[in-house]
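From the pipeline queue, job 12 of 40. The input is one protein chain; the requested action is below.

Action: predict structure.
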Amino acid sequence: MTLLGLTFFILLSASVRAAETGTAKVMILGVAHLEAKHDVHNGVFEDSPLSPKRQAQIAEIILRLSRFHPTKVLIEEPMGNLASPDRYRRYLEGRFKLPGDETYQFGFKLAARAANRTIYPIDTFGPTLLNDDRRCRRIPQGALHERQRCAV
């Protein structure tokens, strides 16, 4: 789920009106990696995300994002991972100190501010942008304007 050094969060907001109409608002948010992830997209931040300056910036962003009133915050952690919801519960209880990683600094803090009871890990490792059909692996799905044909 990481693309060009960004972590994506999906925020869902359901209101009473949404329940009546069967619609929901969805916000997809991408943020830079706040700590090194051993990839080529990390070299932007020279200080710690836990520094007072960065914490003030993160708090302002969380405040603004909370105006969306998310009812669910989905994070970039492996789907089915039970550790993340457990850490989130311990965070709410004051028994887990958040590391500098963007999943915690944005995902956990926003879910807590919105009074969400849990957090939802949704990262998966497939399918990819490339077609998983063994005969046609080189064809990007939806990435080309003109559809290429696959030789059988």
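Job complete. Confidence is low (pLDDT under 50) at residues 1-6, 136-152.
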